[in-house]
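Continued from yesterday's entry.
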Amino acid sequence: MEWYRFVSYGRVQHVFYRKFVSQALMREGFNGYVRNLDDGTVETVVFLVDEESELPKVLKILEEGSPMSEVEKVEYEIVDNVEIETDGFEIRY
């Protein structure tokens, strides 16, 4: 069980990418958040219980993106010091 931080690159801002990601991850039952970063990328932080089965699901959602987005790549890392109070998935501003 780990918190993962994903950063999506490409045309991912102003194309409903955050909304698409938040709704898709919420449907799948994940906890975390998604937000735009100042450099034009999008950060998604997700709690994974079973990394082996859940990591591919999350990556597929992030790489697919919204119909208007053009995801070039998604990088990720495990993060240790996450302080999130949420029982679902949210868009942060």
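--- second protein ---
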Amino acid sequence: MILVSLSLLTLAIWLTLIFARGFFWQARETCDDLAPLAPADAAGLRVTAIVPARDEAATIARCVTSLLKQECPFPFDVVVVDDQSADGTGGIARRAAEALGAADRLSVLAGHAPPPGWTGKLNAMQTGLAFVETRGAAPTHILFTDADIEHAPDTLARLAGCAVRDNRVLVSLMAQLSCQSSAERWLTPAFVYFFAMLYPFAWVNDKGRATAAAAGGCMLVDRAALARAGGLAAIGGALIDDCALGRLMKSVGPIWLGLTRRVVSLRPYPRLDDIRRMVVRSAYAELRYSPLRLAGALVGLTATFLLPPVLAAHADFAVGGPALLAYVLMVLSFRPMLRRYGMGAWRGLFLPVVAALYMAFTVESAIVHALGRGGAWKGRYQAAGSRSE
């Protein structure tokens, strides 16, 4: 009887996820929905991109070049905050701008160590924001973007179009992640799929729902609305800065989040260990550093992803039947994301294995946090309660 109940539970979970979770699995919200801003609607608009960069020599030139090549009907410039890099990041950014004849539209600032209560990235973002707010002709909007992101020429015009036409205080695009190595092909589509499950994009974009999130690689923010929300100081210690900013901005106005192929991540994760470290850095922060939330998440993920294939193999149809249907729904729900990343639908059969790996990474995230080494990023341990270095 217990096994029958568990099997029915797995089916109930998947019916709920498929039909009552914002249809997250369809991956329908994309930048194709965003028409570029027309010149007639651009009056008074002014945008500055702020790029926090720490040891990004490998990608900063492509990032800066793509930003300075934006085709937009309003003034636009770029600020790179060189966050104590040791690899010449700032100089590479300057040379990239000079090669385009656009050195006058790039400013490179020297960053400083984050003060107590701030993470490194948010501190660098604040450094850039303070700079643009004190110079003449302060921008109406800020494009926060990462140094490992490359933008198609019409990206900013599309973001601005959504912000102006729909009066959105934040418009964010989740970059197309690298999916070249074997580890990436197995784990990257699932990473985006799990994110969408946790934060259904349709709910994020619904003005009537509290669900809020953003993707840190590409976020266009209304500067006045950010000030009304309390500025970056209100989230200065957030390890998952993008979702924190999404929640902050939705408290003062509507936001929008979608997928894109026009914004591409240049950061590769060639080995399983690279992806593991990326997840371990912030997974426990998502659970608010709570052991109870961790236990609940593990139980929930086990019931959702691990039990269906296990129970589906049971000889008793009363047990195996509902679980098999749950497993089929799971596999089918993963298909749109796999297709988006050019992967075969057959990989969905192994989603329980991938989920188990992410569960293990989450447990490790809690362990390293307990050891005072949470939030590791380029020589800094930034999670709450960690020993910073």
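The longest helix spans residues 317-340. Residues 379 and 389 are 6 Å apart (CA to CA). Will compare against the first tomorrow.
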